[in-house]
Amino acid sequence: MAQLGEMLRSARELKGVSLAQAEAATMIRRAYLQALEDDEHVLLPGAVYTKGFLRNYAVYLGLDPNHVLSVYHREHPDRTEDVVAPSSINPRGTSQLVSGGTLASLLLVVVVGIFSVYAYRQVQSFRQTAPTAAEAFVPTPTAIPPTPTAIATVAPEATAQPSEQIEPSDALVAAEVTAKITQDAWLQVQVDGQQKFEGILKAGQTQTWKGNDDVFVWAGNAGGVSIVFNGKDMGTLGSAGQVVRRDFRKA
């Protein structure tokens, strides 16, 4: 018997919020939240999106996302391999079935072939023009009379170019974010566009991330996360149970 939907609905009612309020806080469409609570997973866009919805909804409701996902996997096991048609089924009048993987392989072969022909023509064109280019660059010897005073015209100060090197600017300071956890909270962190962390941090833990351009923080319990950005205390990200997304960019 399905328990996942009832678990989500009970947690929401215990929190005292409506589906409309949950939609505004989690940015998940109300229809999808309703489908999760009614166990109507056929109305959801797919397994990958469903798992993401469940994780974010669980964090918002104060549930353990890992436990919620384990219940989901138990009640809705992945049946991806069941969609493969039996080899004994051959549609009448069809000599061969082309699968998605086969079609992709054929397209790859065509692309590689076109690229090979293009590269071959470029190499041939280069070989045809190479001798002419070599002849064009044959140096013409010119007589340079020895001038003893020419060596003395170079002043020693002319070689002192390293003194003009530009020192690194303070404007290139990286973005450094330290998260201090006062209450258990789920976090997702992206550094310069690449995900570096996703999970639950316990109260008392501290994590630091440093990027060249920015550090993006997505917190499920904003009231339990205090931020220090480039040495400056920014306070908590929000209130308890609030889902907050914040992008910290270098100065």
In a few lines, what is going on in this structure?
This protein has 251 residues and is an alpha+beta fold. The protein has helices spanning 4-15, 19-26, 30-37, 47-61, 65-75, 100-136, 148-152, and strands spanning 175-181, 185-191, 194-201, 206-211, 214-219, 225-229, 232-236, 244-249.
Descriptive terms for the model:
251 residues, alpha+beta, 4-stranded antiparallel β-sheet, 8 strands, flat
What would you say this structure looks like, in words?
With 251 residues, the chain is of the alpha+beta class. The chain is built from seven helices and eight strands. The strands form two sheets. A four-stranded antiparallel β-sheet has the order 4-1-6-7, with no helix packed on it. Strand 6 and strand 7 (232-236) form a beta hairpin. The two termini are 54 Å apart.
Q: How much β-strand is present in the residues?
A: 15-25%
Fraction in helix: 25-40%
**Overall pLDDT:** 76
Separate helix tally = 7
- Classify the secondary structure makeup into a structural class: alpha+beta
Give the topology string: H per helix, E per strand: HHHHHHHEEEEEEEE
Radius of gyration: 32 Å
Can you lay out the helices and strands and say which pair or pack?
Layout: H1 4-15, H2 19-26, H3 30-37, H4 47-61, H5 65-75, H6 100-136, H7 148-152, E1 175-181, E2 185-191, E3 194-201, E4 206-211, E5 214-219, E6 225-229, E7 232-236, E8 244-249
Antiparallel strand pairs: 1-4, 1-6, 2-3, 2-5, 5-8, 6-7
